[in-house]
Specification:
11 strands, binds 1-O-pyrophosphono-5-O-phosphono-alpha-D-ribofuranose, 5-stranded mixed sheet, alpha/beta
């Protein structure tokens, strides 16, 4: 039954999956500007159905998973797409969700990342963290967490963190200092590889609409 529902949706209008969390507001602004949807009623409902579209709300790390499994279009951070090595088509980088993935340590214990051999690093990004330290030939141990990463070095269960930094306020509030940027991050538009072929015209029209909007200098 559920599968039939999904297939029906896949045949009908476009399906979007948006990340709950820091990219949600700007994602809705983008869809609003394109005349798709302005607001989603507040509540616990995770599926919002419009006339010719469906919007699903998911955790940011799950957005690429839904798109890989058949949802047409998603908005996800480049950090998440690269961490998961998601098999999706990426037609566009979006002009929001700009931040960076960085290494941070407790204030007063700043050091070069090349001197972190044997360190325990708390992070939601084990793959990107290992790739980064491997590229330096530095062996580290990963402590995988799902959020509030800043806590780990504060209570002494990790030596450092790898996490998203935007304003730097969260680090400062937790007595941490950014010592090295691993990568710049922004939001990506991601598309299911099969939908890109089977719904080519509609997806292309949507992507072109977003491109035009960005070209016109739209800022969220
Ligand atoms: C991210 C990150 C930091 C915060 C950094 O959290 O994990 O906690 O943003 O932003 P700042 O530099 O502007 O303070 P996010 O909201 O993505 O959720 P999380 O706490 O689940 O990681």
């Amino acid at each position: 039954m559920r599968y039939e529902w999904a297939m029906k949706r896949l045949k009908d209008g476009l399906n979007f999956v948006l990340p709950k969390g820091r990219l949600m507001k700007d994602s809705l602004k983008l869809l609003g500007k394109l005349g798709i949807v302005d607001t989603i009623p507040e509540g616990r409902e995770l599926i919002y159905e419009g006339d010719n579209f469906t919007i699903l709300l998911a955790k940011s790390f799950d957005v690429p998973v839904y798109v890989e499994h058949g949802v047409d279009i998603g908005i996800a951070g480049s950090d998440v797409v690269e961490e998961l090595e998601s098999d999706v088509f990426i037609p566009l980088e979006l002009p929001f969700g700009i931040c960076r993935l960085s290494v941070a340590v407790l204030k007063g214990s700043e050091l070069d990342v090349r001197s972190m051999e044997g360190f325990k690093i708390a992070t939601k990004y084990p793959n990107l963290t290992l790739k980064f330290f491997n590229s330096l030939n530095v062996d580290v141990e990963i402590l995988r967490l799902s959020g509030s990463i800043e806590l780990a070095p504060r209570i002494g269960i990790a030596d450092a963190i790898v996490d998203i930094v935007k304003t730097g306020r969260t680090l400062r509030s937790n007595g941490l200092v950014e010592i090295h940027k691993i990568m710049d991050v922004s939001a990506f538009l991601i598309v299911n590889r099969i939908s890109q072929k089977t719904k080519f015209e509609r997806i292309n029209a949507f992507v072109n609409g977003v491109k035009e909007l960005i070209k016109s200098g739209w800022e969220c």
